[in-house]
User: Which sequence fits this backbone?
């Protein structure tokens, strides 16, 4: 059972009331939406408090204090660049516990004293894309005061529309390291939505008009996702995969081990690209800048895949970064190619791996939210989570930000549960350096150019027990204090690659410096296999009709 119960069943001394009458005489019932008083001071512009979709009205029978319980919604513009800023577009904002099995829209309810209520508002929660169902009717007299007056009226009294839910998952602490941002599902939407009858913008004096904030132009309506499943049939088929920023092929290797058929990879680094092609000779390599992809001579139709992974350069966002680098601008901008590529190539599932700093560092919050906005605008629902790959059988403490995105019309895969842990967790024991080195003991090779311990300089470090030890995070230079367990030398490229989860047969290209970069920059294949395996399982279940697009 969960350790913390949010909003459990209503029980004495609490009793549920059917209605509550505001000081203005307006009656509030379950199903209504209310605007809360604004408690934050802003220097300029139009601002308001949050909104609550009322689910229950609760009275404390001992004190007679009354509060409402419901779903909190906030204006889209209060989330920075995570959502497009449109007038009266709001976002359902939920906080849930990792160990609570109840649905997010149940455990994410919040309670607010009725004294915080400002007014009742017209609000619709919809699965339909923008601009369906906007604004409602505007009194004719409001047209006479000009555009600003109309905006003021709509801001304070016009219809609110909620199309997105933003969920933060908490695991026993105040800080959340996991979340989900997606369109409202059809089953979560209000009933009786009839956008077909809504007049076009400016079609009549009573029709919705263009009164949006200038920062975000009105776009065409997005079609709501169809419940009709892709016509792939139920027979077994090969699920295809592409690896963007593929490097030497960590993600590609994981996808292949998970059961995907690798069609192509993209990277501009000459040595990493050669290594990738050595490992996946039957797949196509595009050695070019991601901003220029796809090449003009390659039809987009030939690049369609089921799964696509992005491990864009992470150096700029790294937690350990302390000084400017020559490639900072290029590395910073690399994440902004992801949204446009998803718009062009439209894979069913897209995954991303990044350094944790993109999420945890306050200076990168805007970049993280812009990335998610790009992905959502490309037509995807998104999950993100910081994981320690040691909990999935990787022989190092390697924390990374992982993102899973599903195109509208496809189910959003969950993150896999940890497979390894400390004693008492009921999981497999942690995978140690000794475990990772088993291939070197079982199949010693003398011709491996990436395993040459005799060529390394002698060191005098503290020895450690490899049967009890995990490495620190492996980086492009090997990582801090990641010396050999004997204490007499550094690790070889092969040893580090085994602690990343590469098979001993995986090729790297170039000398030690190049090999270390290829290993340290890779998405650990062990973690990739588990994550991609979960995505593949969801795709197969969906195509076989076992689950729906919103399951």
Assistant:
């Amino acid at each position: 059972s969960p350790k913390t119960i949010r909003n459990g069943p209503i029980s004495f001394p609490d009793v549920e009331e059917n209605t509550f009458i505001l000081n203005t005489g307006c009656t509030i019932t379950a199903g209504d939406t209310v605007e809360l008083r604004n408690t934050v001071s802003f220097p300029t512009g139009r601002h308001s408090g949050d909104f609550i979709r009322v689910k229950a009205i609760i009275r404390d029978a001992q004190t007679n204090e009354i509060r409402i319980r419901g779903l909190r919604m906030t204006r889209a513009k209060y989330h920075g660049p995570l959502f497009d800023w449109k007038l009266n577009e709001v976002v359902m904002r939920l906080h849930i516990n990792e160990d609570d099995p109840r649905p997010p829209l149940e455990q994410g309810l919040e309670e607010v004293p009725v004294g915080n209520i400002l007014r009742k508002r017209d609000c619709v929660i919809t699965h339909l894309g923008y601009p369906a169902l906007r604004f409602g009717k505007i009194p004719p007299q409001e047209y006479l005061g000009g555009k600003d007056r109309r905006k003021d009226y709509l801001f304070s009294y016009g219809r609110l529309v909620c199309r997105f839910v933003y969920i933060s998952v908490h695991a026993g602490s105040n800080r959340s390291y996991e979340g989900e941002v997606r369109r409202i599902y059809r089953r979560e939407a209000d009933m009786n939505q009839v956008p077909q009858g809504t007049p076009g913008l400016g079609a009549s004096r009573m029709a919705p008009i263009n009164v949006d904030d200038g920062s975000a132009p009105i776009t065409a309506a997005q079609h709501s996702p169809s419940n009709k499943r892709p016509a792939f049939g139920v027979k077994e088929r090969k699920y295809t995969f592409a690896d963007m920023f593929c490097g030497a092929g960590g993600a590609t290797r994981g996808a292949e081990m998970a059961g995907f058929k690798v069609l192509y990879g993209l990277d501009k680094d000459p040595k990493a690209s050669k290594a990738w092609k050595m490992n996946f000779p039957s797949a196509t390599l595009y050695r070019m800048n991601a901003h220029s992809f796809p090449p003009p001579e390659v039809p987009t139709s030939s690049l369609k895949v089921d799964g696509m992974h992005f491990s864009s350069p992470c150096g700029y966002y790294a937690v350990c970064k302390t000084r400017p680098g020559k490639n900072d601008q290029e590395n910073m901008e690399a994440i902004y190619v992801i949204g446009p590529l998803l718009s062009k190539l439209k894979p069913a599932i897209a995954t991303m791996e990044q350094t944790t700093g993109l999420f945890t560092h306050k200076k990168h919050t805007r970049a993280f939210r812009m990335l998610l906005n790009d992905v959502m605008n490309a037509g995807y629902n998104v999950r993100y989570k910081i994981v320690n790959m040691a909990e999935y059988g990787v022989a190092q403490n390697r924390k990374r930000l992982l993102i899973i995105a599903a195109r509208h019309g496809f189910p959003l895969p969950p993150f896999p549960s940890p497979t390894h842990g400390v004693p008492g967790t009921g999981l497999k024991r942690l995978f140690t350096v000794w475990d990772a080195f088993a291939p070197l003991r079982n199949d010693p090779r003398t011709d491996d150019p990436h395993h040459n311990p005799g060529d390394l300089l002698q060191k005098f470090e503290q020895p450690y027990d490899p049967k009890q030890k995990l490495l620190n995070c492996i980086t492009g230079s090997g990582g801090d204090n990641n010396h050999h367990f004997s204490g007499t030398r550094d690790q070889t490229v092969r040893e580090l690659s085994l602690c990343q989860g590469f098979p001993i047969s995986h090729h790297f290209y170039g000398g030690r410096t190049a090999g270390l970069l290829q290993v340290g920059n890779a998405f650990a294949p062990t973690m990739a296999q588990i994550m991609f395996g979960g995505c593949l399982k969801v795709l197969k279940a969906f195509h076989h009709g076992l689950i729906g697009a919103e399951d």
Q: What stands out?
A: DSSP finds 13 helices and 21 strands in the chain. The chain has two domains: 14-197, 225-551. The chain has a mean pLDDT of 89. The two ends are 23 Å apart (CA to CA).
